Here is the input.
Amino acid sequence: MTHEPLGAAWLVWLETTALAQAMRQWLWLYPVVEIVHIVGIVLLVGAAAMFDLRLLGVSRRLPVAEMARHLLPWARLGLGVMVPTGLLMFSAHATEFAANPAFRLKLALVAAACLNAAVFHRWPFRSVSAWNVDAESPPAAKLAAGLSLTLWFGVIACGRLLAYL
Here is the structure.
């Protein structure tokens, strides 16, 4: 360990588990987990960005519903990769990350992005048949797309800032 773990008891416990110690001590484990985490980010944010750009008016001839059907599984897969790999990396530095403002903001942005997606699929997307092809997306869909792009960009920025704050 590079520091004495100080903080909430559960964070200290997590950081001193065998798995967390392996994440810090095995030469290639942390970098491999981080690379897989980045692949998850690429899958999720790439799929979301393609869909969001369509909602904002790019490639209007592509059916929104078909894009959602194709891209949503990729986004879910990306999230499914990001969460466990993120937890593994967090376990290795739990007390440090918990105190890092970039990490706390990153978690808040991930939660906000997921909530934004849920709200979009619950309300604006239900009327997609009216604006599926060659039509402008409704303002609520455009707002959700702009928020999505902004929030996921913020998640990526905060992830990079972890090393510097």
